[in-house]
Amino acid sequence: AEKLMESLEKLVVAKARILRGGELVEVPSAELVLGDIVYVEEGDSVPADLRVLDEEELATNDFALTGESNPTRKFVHPITANVGIAQRQNLVFMGTTVAIGHGHGVVVATGMHTELGRIASLSQDIDTSASPLQKEMNHIATFVTQGTVALCAILLPIAIRGGLDTKAAFLFAIGIASSIIPQGLPAEINTALAQAAGKLARARALVKKLSAVETLGACAVICTDKTGTLTKNQMTVQRVLVGKTEYGVSGTGYEANGKILDKNGMSLDKNTLKELGIFFATAAMASNARVNPPDDQHATWYCLGDPTEGALVALARKAGVEPEKLDEQHTELKEFQFDSARKRMSSVREYGGKTFVFVKGAPESVLACSTEMWDHGHVRPLQRADRTFFNKCNETNAREAMRNLGLAYAELPHGYKPGMKLEDVEHDLTFLGMVSMLDPLRDEVPAAMEAARRANIRVSIVTGDYALTATAVAVKAHLAEKPEDILVVSGDELQGLSDTQVLNLARRGGVIFSRVAPEDKLRIVSLVKSSGRVVAVTGDGINDAPALKRADIGVAMGLTGTDVAKQSAEIVLLDDSFNTLVGAIEQGRIIFQNIKKGTLSCFTSNAAELVVNLVSLAAATLFHVPLAMSVMEILAIDLVAELFPIAALGWDRADGRLMAEQPRNPRHHILNPESIFDLLWCGVLIGGFAFLNYIWFYVRHSANPQSFPASNLLHYQATALTYLTIVLCQLGNILQRRSSAGLFTRYQFHNKQLWLAMALSLFCVVNIIYNPWIAPYFQAGSLGLSDWLFAILAAALFILLREWQRYTGQHSRKAVLKLHAIHAEVMQS
Fold first, then answer.
1. CB 455 within 8 A of CB 663
2. Is 297 exposed, middle or buried (CB count within 10 Å of its CB: 0-12, 13-18, 19+)?
3. Mean of the per-residue pLDDT values for the chain?
4. Rg, the chain, Cα only
């Protein structure tokens, strides 16, 4: 919470210019009070929430608060309806920046009373719950603890009554507890999570909380932001229409890394670009924005000023035109700024020894002032058919959520005179054509959407932007299999829906929630989370922070995301790629699969140890046979023999078609009746083989165990054989549980770390049995070759029984599925 507040404080402007005594003075923004008159202009950060009093083409970048990629035009007149934050265009908000224009506003809110502060309070009020993995481990811990306490409470008196002295009885109880509690499991889980976090970091996903890795694997619903997440949040020209010829434009963002392309997708040659030079020069000279390379504050090329003008500057550079050189060579004499009434702006410059005006604006507005058109190097009168053609092109591109601008120029035969009015220059223009731009979709998003759909993950877009813009992006992103399957719900409509209806929409997926406020986004996420489904939220703006904190897994954008969003999230995508998120979900599924293998493997040996201890207790009580294992040997299984191989399972790759399965239900536990029965069965097999080897050892040596004390060398050798039998069976069990396809598959050979870990475990086991400085601590005696053969035989029998069980089980399941299919066909017919 402290880091989140520090990030929010960075958005607070240090100084503000206000009117005091009729003069403009600069004061610390912390001294602003309600009623102060603040002046803001292009490039300024807004120091408080202001009601606009007067403005000159004032527009602010509200993306971080509203999610809208284009600058929001501001006006003075009152708004009588109850509208969302994105429609409150007579207000400018703290934390936003002025894109163009200037104006005065009266302070209506400061500090935590601003929209920025309200979002901060929403973020602070959210309690983060335990992750699904933490809940699963708590469930296992509770189950094991209760079972251990109950069993020890029952067996301790039995052991004492059976003839064991108090010390031996308590040691037996400790052995029972040690045999049930999987001491190596926490190390295995944390190792697996750390391995996954390392893989994700190399894949450009920074994990701030280890358990978040597994949480992603259980993700069933993704609520993604649009601007900056699915799109680049960088206006980019996609098409240009010069005369009546359309050209494509490659490359995205503000970096000039693209080309102008002909209808066949080939780059235009230098001669053609020179012929079209006036078009691109007009685009650059009618723009005031500056595009700069990456620096300490910006990871990519960025725009200072109106993003629309930044896109035109980038376009000019792709065509080989340098806007800075144009500004130096062709001095601007007069600029007539854009206004919403005429929807144009003009720049009067000296060009080629003459005076010209260069105009850009809404195509219909520029056409209205044009009498001629440029047509492949020739200027001819603009006909009615030409106007119809350009208007139709404008409408077609607008339906694709593109922003269209018309470009024109005209020579001023009488030159520039101080005091000239726009009526003197904006007439008899030569129409050059149009540029069509949008905030481009990230290249990898459609494939990532398809992958999420195959993984049965429901994706919806939750944005503050317009429905038309969001729909165009959703169609290109393949949000649904068919465009007609995409459902649009506006913020106003959302208010009228019940919680059940909203939840059903989120579960459905393929929905666009447009024009939503931070509270709406928080409501959607809270409803999905409370239904028991794991929900991931992606975002990069301040308005995303509450939902990012409330979600099971918050995913922030590392390149374009605000510090507030990054501090609120558990995972930061360093490349801002939705595809990286889908890859992280796959890694999360793999890690839970590996944790499940490790957990069941741990409890298998624990079940075997429990069986050996219980049978030993019965034998000791009824026949006065010494206990088959010491407490140290039990601990040596959990903390030495199996620890390294189980931890190495974290390197296992996906087993089976993992990304085609349904997301894991967090309410389905690893330790369920089916798995517990399987563990007990494995425990009976391994424990039974181990105890038989223990008794058979005495038989092979023609010794009566009843006549040997527990401190005798022969007894130490017998317990060592029990220990070795369990270890070898457990190593076979780990290999057998790795793959659903069986032990004898190529899957067994991809994880080199596992085989190294097994070699290390066997090295430790050999030292426990044979090292004269170590063996006494474990009460273990040296074994002969025949003893090893009996231990290996027990492990081989265990593996064969398990493989036979797997084979018959798979065929039984196939038979059941076939019967279901036949039944369905009969019912259908």
1. yes
2. exposed
3. 86
4. 36
Query: pLDDT digit string (tens) for 293-351?
Result: 887 777 778 887 788 889 999 999 999 999 889 888 888 888 887 776 778 889 999 88
At residue 13's C-alpha, the angle toward residues 8 and 16, to 5°, is: 155
CA–CA separation, 278 and 330 (whole Å): 13
Give the pLDDT confidence score for residue 565 in this predicted structure.
78
What is the rounded distance in angstroms from the CA atom of residue 133 to the CA atom of residue 669?
Answer: 10
Contact of 585 with 573, CB cutoff 8 Å: no
Q: What would the mean pLDDT of 363-371 be, rounded to a whole number?
A: 93
For residues 92 and 107, the answer to whether their CB atoms sit within 8 Å is no
Question: What residues have CB less than 8 Å from 292, skipping those under 6 apart?
Answer: 298, 301, 302, 303, 304
> What's the pLDDT score for residue 340?
66
Among 225, 375, 439, 638, the one annotated catalytic = 225
Helix (H) or strand (E) holding 360: strand 354-361
The contacts of residue 329 (CB under 8 Å, 6+ apart) are none
- In a 3-state reduction of DSSP, which class is residue 593? helix
Q: State the Cα torsion 60-64-66-67 to the nearest 10°.
A: 110
Give me the DSSP letters along 275-344: HTHHHHHHHHHT---EEE---SS-SS-EEES-HHHHHHHHHHHHTT--HHHHHHHS-EEEEEEEETTTTE
Q: How far apart are CA 348 and CA 421, in angstroms?
A: 11
The SS3 of residue 543 is: helix
C-alpha–C-alpha distance, residues 420 and 441, integer Å = 43
Q: Closest by alpha carbon to 413, among 355, 370, 357, 331?
A: 355
Transcribe 68-120 into DSSP letters: -SSPEE---S---S---GGG-TTEE-TT-EEEEEEEEEEEEE-GGGSHHHHHH
For 529, other C-beta atoms within 10 Å of its C-beta total 17
pTM: 0.75
The dihedral sign for the CA sequence 315, 60, 545, 548? negative
Contact between residue 464 and residue 517 where contact means Cβ atoms under 8 Å apart: yes
Distance CA 578, CA 224 (A): 9
Name the nearest CA neighbour of 515 among 464, 468, 473: 464
Task: Give yes or no for a contact between 210 and 543, defined as CB atoms under 8 angstroms apart.
Answer: no
Q: Residue 632: what pLDDT?
A: 87
DSSP H or E segment with residue 437: strand 429-438
Q: What is the pLDDT of residues 218-273, one digit of tens each?
A: 899 999 988 777 887 788 999 999 999 999 999 888 888 899 999 888 999 999 99
Paired residues of 536 in beta bridges? 222, 553
Across-strand partners of 241? 246, 434
Is 225 an annotated catalytic residue? yes
SS3 state at 469:
helix
- Which pair of structure tokens corresponds to residue 575? 């490349």
- Which residues are within 8 A (CB) of 71 and not within 5 positions of it... i.e. 6 or more apart? 59, 60, 61, 62, 99, 100, 306, 307, 308
Q: What residue has token string 């793999």?
A: 590
Residue 575's nearest CA partner among 250, 206, 223 is 206
SS3 category, 541: coil
